[in-house]
Amino acid sequence: MDSVIVLFLVLSAFFTASAQQMESNVSPGSYLMPGINSTWLSRSGLFAFGFYKQGNGYAVGIFLAGIPQKTVVWTANRDEPPVSSTATLIFTNNGTLVLQSTPEQTPIIIADSLGSTSAAMLDTGNFVLHNSDQQVVWQSFEHPTDSLLPGQPLLAGTELFSSMSETDHSTGIFRLKMQHDGNLVQYPVDTPDTRAYAYYASGTDGRGDNVTLNFSPDGHLYLLSATGANIRNLTDGGYPRKETIYLMRIDADGIFRLYSYEVKQNGNWSNVWSSSNDLCEPKGLCGLNGYCVLNDNKAQCVCLPGFEMAHQTTGCVRSFNAAGRCSSKDEYNPHTMSELANIVWEDMPYSVLSFPLKEDCERSCLEDCNCEAALFKDSTCRKQRPPLRYGRRTLTDSTAFIKVGKSTPADMPKDNQKGLRLDILILGGGKILSIRGCDIS
């Protein structure tokens, strides 16, 4: 911890004299409002606790105020709607930090600790409540959102949750968990902590129930056992410390990264390290019934055939009426099959069949009223029903078939339709699978 304090004392030299002289202690009865008197600054002026702009209103959190890019590193009650410019943040006389949106609404508790007599925004980026003995009784470092700062551990059983976007800091769709089995794992939100849903793991399971992720001022991310032994380095560390700030964050795209910022240059955050270089690796990036493709090293979400984009985080919805006739007795099948190469999704088949050719799998799904999609690989046909999750393009030699609606015969007077016989060609993979005749009456 001493090294962390030294780092920020060095950084403080680059901020104004008035900021250096600011008292960081916050006494009971103190309050903040957006616009005027909106933050409590750390002693150097590097970090601020208070209101920041979000959407059409304001949120409460911690951000780097001493650099041109006011980067948010912690958000209080992040899933509450933004508040108006009339909101008030109060450190009450009983030691509770509350947000009063309007006089009529019930105050929202931001931090509550019995017996706290003062608060402070520290130069480490940690906002703390102290008791009368100056002991820390509450700290933001123990309630992380999407980021870690040097000196801030991620304890066993604790998670980071991505934000929805760079500008919307409400809870996103990915999480990073320091598990009690010693493994650091990434999952989509609202999934069990099981291997089937993981898309990143440190490979340290079985190392004990009290492993922690630690972060040094030189950019070193590492895992320590309960005895303090180093069991895994995520980054080597040893990066420049002078006039440099480091930040670890699980980004909205599901990848957690180590960033650095050089104070003197007043430039942009630089990506020092990433948990993955495959931007399509995070499961669920493209929502339901979509799939991820890399285009110029950028992740692009594409809807499966027969679907259209509703929203990237929720996915795609059908673009045709799926309630058409489907019966083995029907002569006319209102669907056809669309083929995609090297597309995979979550493997949850309701039926697994063996076929020598992919065309057999295609035909089997087309003629099965319950089948909406099928994956064919290594002579195995795996039938599924939507919603299809975690879709992405891969290098595997597999073929996906998606059932879609096809155009019905052209409208014509019913009298002329009677007794008319049409030949319907069912196409798949560029080949004619069968020719059927049907009477329209």
Give a brief rundown of this model:
The protein has 441 residues and is mainly beta.
Describe the structure.
The chain has 441 residues and is mostly beta strands. It folds into 3 domains: 1-143, Agglutinin, subunit A (Orthogonal Prism), CATH 2.90.10.10; 144-277, Bulb-type lectin domain (Agglutinin, subunit A), CATH 2.90.10.10; 322-440, Hepatocyte Growth Factor (3-Layer(bba) Sandwich). The protein is 6% helix and 41% strand. Strands 28-34-31-32-30 form a 5-stranded antiparallel sheet, covered by helices on one side. A hairpin with a 4-residue loop joins β7 and β8 (96-100). The longest helix has 11 residues, at 2-12. The protein starts with a helix and ends with a strand.
List keywords for this structure.
Hepatocyte Growth Factor, 41% strand, five-stranded antiparallel sheet, 3 domains, disordered N terminus, 441 residues, mainly beta, Agglutinin, subunit A, single chain
